[in-house]
Amino acid sequence: MRTLAFQMPDRGGGPSGPRMRVGRPSRRARTLLTTLGVLAVLAMAFIMFAGFWTDWLWFRSVKYSSVFTTTLWTKIGLFAVFGLLMAGAVGLNIWLAYRLRPPLSAMSMEQQSLDRYRMSVAPYKKWLLLAIAAIVGLIAGASAAGQWKTWLMYVNGVPFGKKDPQFHLDVSFYTFDLPWYRFLLGFGFAAVVLSVIAAVVVHYLYGGLRLTSPGARATAAATGHLSVLLGLFVTLKAVAYWLDRYGLAVKSSDFKATDNWTGLRYVDANAYLPAKTILVAIAAICAVLFFATLWRRTWQLPVIGFGLMVLSAILIGGLYPAIVQKFQVQPNEQAKESPYVEKNIKATRDAYGIDGADVKDYPGVPQTEDRTKLRSVADTTASLRLLDPNIVSPAFQQLQQVKGYYGFPSTLAVDRYAGQDTVIGLRELNIGGIPKNNWINDHFKYTHGYGVVAAKGTTVKDGAPDFTQSDLPSKGMFGTDFEQRIYYGEQTKQYSIVGGPQKELDYSDDKGEKETSYKGNSGVNLDNPVNRAAYALAFSEPQILYSGAIGEGSRILYNRTPKDRVESVAPWLTIDGAPYPAVVDGRIKWIVDAYTTTNGYPYASRTTLGQSTADSLTNSQRAVVAQENQVNYIRNSVKATVDAYDGTVDLYQWDTKDPVLKTWMKAFPGTVKPKSEISKPLMDHMRYPQDLFKVQRELLTRYHVTDPQTFLSGSEAWAVPDDPTTKAGTAVPPYYLSMKMPGQPEKDQVFSLTTTFTPNERPNLSAFMAVNADPGTPDYGKIRILKMPTSKPPDGPGQVQSKFQSEPKIAESIRLLRGGDSEIEYGNLLAVPMDGGMLYVEPVYVRSSGLKYPLLRKVLVTYGGQTAFEDTLEKALNVVFGAEAPTTPVPPSTPTNPTTPTNPNTPPTAQDPTVKAALADAQKAVEEADKAMKAGDWAAYGKAQSDLQAALKRAIDAEAKLTAPKPGG
């Protein structure tokens, strides 16, 4: 019997026929390849193990192993569950499509071409099925593991006790539940789409679907299978439409009234919301039509239904809302949008903690004519801080660095000690200043900084900081009986190995270098060779594995900056950009503010943390963690401390009402201590955090307005002014200041955080804002805003700075101070409300060409149109309030008697011989100082500087005599 020319291939096996013999590798080659393969697998396994093991050791060393295990098991659980679900869904549909293949393929060129692929796949179909399922399962599992925070918030969510104004659901539904539902929905869509793709490929490969073959394009089995999958897809779309209804409450959209508007507007509530509800019903009907294909075996009705659903989505979900917006909203926008703006204002003020802000009108001009009384009030209204922590770091560096391998941060901290504002910094290790960099020096010998340096904030000594704690070892107001070694700090970013046979440099004094060995319990023990191998791999440093400098007792310290440590043990917190040190109970503690945030608060407008917290002082070191995060709810819920010696991290519950913090405390029990455990000495150094204040002031530029109509008009919108002391065009930073705020219940000055506002696109002052930053007072956290009159507003910071620099007498004095290549640096321009007016104070520093640090030389003060530029704050206040004649006469910004002519017989000061002689002496002193500096003769340099100051004073005194008013006019 002759064989048919076109015999169908065996569908269950591979191709038959003669096989070519391929030479097998020798036994030695096979052994070598096997060995190499095993070694490669072991190496990869150890690399993965090293990362896991070092993380576990570090969390155990800081006593937060529960954070590691909870996070790890949550990720493993999500990976396993969703990975298996995805693998099962895709694998099941591949297997089902194969089982539903037709028994015979149609006789066509298309099927003959596919026979080759079928024969190629046949021997490996089981492995191919497992491989595809494994790949999609791994990808889906990894994606699900990344949702560990969403899952923990969902299962541990605590009610807010507040309901949204549209659907009347608790806010926790939007912050904790809705994100998880959306993830499940996205996962479901992914599983169905991948299953459809896989089923279509298998059905086509085995003849269930045909493109060019004669007869039906799909078998009944393939039609039923794909109809069910498409029915599931449309069902999920119906669920998506239903969730989209609630998503409108947290949806951001463009709205001219405010950036990043969140919540429903008129068109959402009256067009999109009913459209979504209608689309739910249409999608549900369409899904039923797809499922009905199991019996009808035709796609005619489902395709028609799907087309109607798409058309409805375009007409009802797109065109109809556009018509409503165009013909109903735009002609009468304020009336239509006002109810929704009111909801947005209320939700935003609540979400950012600004709902309790007290806004009061403020006259902006002095209310008392008694200048003597005003002079007395000026001394008690505020502790006017002359020492600018953003400028004096070089002075700390030069006067207290002691050794080149120590350093201070570029911006120092402001705190309270002994009832006065104090500028404080730590003498940290500067790895770049080590005399000779090598592995032993960098990681074994130079391991820590040493000592605290502090200075009075309101006074200086000969222009330099008036230190209250100084020298090495540090001594002064804190005494010497406290742990001064700083193993953990803002500048300490490299790892160190301590406690072993290699001694560390402690500090140096006149008697030479002192050595020490670390006695703390922090760090990970390196006695174990497995630990050493893991860290050698983790830090890419093989010497850790075999170095003789590591022995019994050796410990490795890493993750040493306060922000890194707090962020690691509490990954659910957002960390403030400005940790600060405090001496508490004989230890140096870093205090770190931390926030709980969410972007799911209904109706509350969003803000980007990085943009809201940026100002003229923001750099990579002081930037808030997670700068790109968009949030619409924030609370300073946790205060954290990091011990500068042993790195101990303590988290304290600060906001006892915050539901987000309560949720995380349920997820990670025992990690956050109750507020009652904060000691009194530690509480004395807590303060209101800067980054939270900056976020709140950014929101208050618009949300100080509570009337919807006014809010929509934008007529009372404010702006945060640019820092007038720099040319960078960045926002002015807020300033810590002890002061009396009008309306505060406390009689004495209160440690506060202050800022100013200007109207949009205008330089004058529109408002002054301060928050009580002292937790020791019952009014802590109270925001007070003084609103200036719009008819005759006082000068804003930029105007004040411009007037300072444009006054002829001040400009001439500044020009003289700049003589000899000296540089002028303007300190913080402090604004203080006083008796209805605004008192501005600005220290002026001079950095001469021979000195590497600035000295305070002048103080600028203005109040009520009077300006003074004097050597000390006291003199400047005396001049402004008429208690003393000015050293450098400065006319008022607004002349008190503009009709009085000037004396035409008064000769120009530039022609006066006394002034000319003094200026010549000043120039000569500058030249002598330059020569002495180049020659290294510092005694002569000091004498020249003294001569320069004396000459400048003679010139200023001479000008004062010439411009002083004569009796009888």
Any key phrases for this structure?
disordered N terminus, 5-stranded antiparallel β-sheet, 34 strands, alpha+beta, 969 residues, disordered C terminus, 6-stranded mixed β-sheet
Structure commentary:
The chain is globular and about 115 Å long. Helix 5 crosses helix 6. The N and C termini lie far apart (140 Å). Helix content is 43%, strand content 18%. Strands 3, 25, 26, 27, 28 and 29 form a six-stranded mixed sheet that branches. The chain has a five-stranded antiparallel sheet with strand order 5-6-9-10-11, with helices on one face. Strands 18, 19, 20, 23 and 24 form a five-stranded antiparallel sheet that branches. With 969 residues, it is of the alpha+beta class.
- End-to-end gap: 140 Å
How many distinct helices? 26
Rounded mean pLDDT score? 85
Strand content: 15-25%
The backbone outline, from C-alpha atoms, is: globular
Radius of gyration: 37 Å
Structural class: alpha+beta
Name the quaternary structure: single chain
The major beta sheet can be summarized as:
6 strands, mixed
Q: What low-confidence regions span 5 or more consecutive residues with pLDDT below 50?
A: 1-22, 889-911, 963-969
List how many beta strands DSSP finds: 34
Short structural summary:
This protein is of the alpha+beta class and 969 residues long. Strands 3, 25, 26, 27, 28 and 29 form a six-stranded mixed sheet that branches. Strands 5-6-9-10-11 form a five-stranded antiparallel sheet, with helices on one face. Strands 18, 19, 20, 23 and 24 form a five-stranded antiparallel sheet that branches.
